[in-house]
Amino acid sequence: MKTSITASMLYDLVQCPHRVSMDLFEDFTKKDPINPFVQLLWEKGNAFEQEVIEGLQVPFVNLRPFSDQEREQRTKEAMSRGDTLIYGGRISADDLLGDPDLLRWKEGGYVAGDIKSGAGVEGASEDTDGKPKKHYAVQLSLYTDILERMGLSGGRTPFIWDVHGDEVIYDLDVPQGARNPQSLWGLYQASLATAKNIVEGSEKTLPAYAGICKLCHWYTSCTSRLRELNDLTLIPELGRAKRDVMVPRISGIKHLAEADLEKLSDGKKTVFSGIGHGSLEKFQVRARIQCQPGAEPYLKEPIHLPHSELELFFDIETDPMRDICYLHGFVERNGGENSTERYVPFLAEQPTPEEEERAFAQAWEYVQANRPCVIYYYSPYERTFWRKLQKLYPTIATEEEIEEIFTPEVSVDLYQNVVRSKTEWPTNDFSMKTIASFLGFKWRDPHPSGAASIEWYHRWVETGDPKIRQRILDYNEDDCRAMRVLLDAVQGFEVA
Ligand code: SF4
């Protein structure tokens, strides 16, 4: 039977084309178990869809209870009657198959919509509206394409009903941005062509090491293949796009380590489109340290950090599904003595704005009461989220007060200002887990991750189980301690 191109296939393809190949052709017994966080996303997605449908105030046709075949037949019948809203329908044309959550009558045809338990756009802030999500756009485009092929389209303006209760229209024909003239429809056409090539076997894909791999059911298979291939994406920050540009001339990490860069460069430019000489040199350094048996991390230049008797190692945990910050954790250390360490958490005991505000207010008071101090955190995320919390709860602190906390005299982003800019490591990425594990630090939890913590928080809110609450706190405490281990190690590194 011919394989159809589906919306979920395009969703995966936008994030990782290799995932599509693996799902189609790889032995499924090699899959890892489904990650509990992914499972939670599914559950929350289904529950949210159910809640939205139960709250609908308008008449609609419900086709969810029927088999796939029946749903398709009944969708055709509903559309030929001109029913105004169809839930759970199925449509197909040629080799395209779609299961839009909604089909809504509009201007002599239908537009499709999906119900999503996430925000309808990404990157929205007080100052910007945010951009359409590509993985949503390709799904909506597929439904629209099918409707056009059926002669039943009401226009290229499908929609998302999102977690905030907003209807977000995806205008598929407008350019994606000032610097990106390609429309979402153009993105869809390109994605569809790639998907067809993968399905037909005319396009071979390669795995690429990336952050999303850690949640993917092919993680074990792909990482082992990447190691066999000595793949360039195992170099921190190199990534799929650069690897694909480089791989015709540079086959792998060892090859890059030994390459004569002068032959690949012309001044600041290189033969690789979009990769400058400086970046190529940086990747070669990282390739060399990976190829050296027993290599140790080192400083590229001296680091100058602010000094205070009191150090605070600070880490927050957030739940993107509820869009809240549920934990602010601090490990404090006095006079550089590890024996003085103490963990101080501020947890939102319920996922409510009131609890989020209380936890933020207490964390803020704690920091104020402990000045002067130096605050260490890992990645700009803590600063970004505290800025956001300040806007939500402006009586707790002013904008200026939050900015002052994150000035270089008071705090240090160990990821941006130390690891990324001043050090090199024989590791495949610069995540705190990877770096601190390399230094010998061990989390108490056997499966530590930010995604896992979110999953525990959901379970704890549902069950009230104190063991789960403690697991969340232990994990956050260990994240803070891992930062202290990193700081101490880096301060002992030699400058190479
Ligand atoms: S593990 Fe990574 S490379 Fe492999 S299929 Fe999943 S996302 Fe793609």
Give the total of beta strands: 22
Most strands sheet: 6 strands, mixed
- How do the strands of the widest beta sheet line up side by side? 2-3-6-7-10-11
Overall structural class, as computed from helix and strand content, comes to: alpha/beta
How many helices?
A: 17
CATH class of the largest domain: Alpha Beta
What is the approximate shape? globular
Residue runs with pLDDT of under 50 for 5 or more positions? none
* Unique bound compounds: iron/sulfur cluster
CATH architecture descriptor text of the largest domain: Alpha-Beta Complex
Oligomeric status: single chain
CATH-defined topology of the largest domain: Lambda Exonuclease, Chain A
Tell me about this structure:
The structure is a single chain. With 496 residues, this protein is of the alpha/beta class. It has three domains: 5-200, Lambda Exonuclease, Chain A (Alpha-Beta Complex), CATH 3.90.320; 230-295; 310-491, Ribonuclease H-like superfamily/Ribonuclease H (Nucleotidyltransferase, domain 5, 2-Layer Sandwich). Helices cover 44% and strands 18% of the residues. The protein is built from 17 helices and 22 strands. Helix 1 (7-15) crosses helix 6 and helix 15 (432-438) crosses helix 17. The protein starts with a strand and ends in a 5-residue tail after the last helix. The model has no long low-confidence stretch (mean pLDDT 95). The structure holds iron/sulfur cluster. Residues 16, 18-19, 22, 207-208, 210, 212-213, 216, 218-219, 222 line the site of iron/sulfur cluster.
